[in-house]
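Lecture 7 notes: from sequence to structure.
We start with the chain below.
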Amino acid sequence: MSRRDDTKPDGNQPSEADTIAAAAVRLAGERGWRNLTLGDVALEAGVTLSALARCYGSRHEILDGFERMIDRRMLAGAIAGDTDDKPRDRLFDIIMERFDALLPYRDGVRRITREALFDPLSGLTLAAAAPRTLGWMFTGARIAADGPAMPLRLAVLGGVYLAAFRVWLDEESQDFSKTMATLDKQLDRAMSLIGGSFGRSRPAEPVPSEGPPDVAEPEPVPPAAEPVLRPGRKKAAAPRKKPSVTTNTGPH
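Predicted structure tokens for the same chain:
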């Protein structure tokens, strides 16, 4: 179980736990993930081993902490949009918000994703984090996806996200048009698969401070994780405009 220090940071500074998690994933992009030691991570994060031990006890706990940090940043960056927005469009927005949050760490995420095939504990950590992330995607998109259909909707959304994630990992264009085209197409396919919408809309409301176990209230996003502006993206409280895409692109 993670030993994260849940003390909230001052101002816009990330917590010590987030600083450590971010440093570990950045370092993984340079050296690989499986060979990292906790000493390497502490040195990269600029903290003592004692400070690291207050937050985490292993690389796998750090990886889980990183996933939780990205979940919080995804939710903090989510745009409320209009209550008349389609649920699939709100899911489009929040998935792209997650990619925005991951972007500063993409090299490390790429290495971890590929090395997890040969690192069972890291693979299990990522697999265990996935349902939590998908649940927060539904929550952030204001979709009530509870009830007997919830497992199916989680599985379908997981397939949508994974297909777009594979394209995003290696896309070179700055506007991520291939990623958005893939996500758009996969959401349409998913709706056909489940026979309609992903779920009923819920009224707009702040993300609760108490949610699933160990999920903290979204924290301020440090400057390095600021979203990348793309065509159609506005920082105002308005929904992300889904681009008009004609490219027929699938996942790698």
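Points to note: The two ends are 34 Å apart (CA to CA). Confidence is low (pLDDT under 50) at residues 1-11, 206-239, 241-252.
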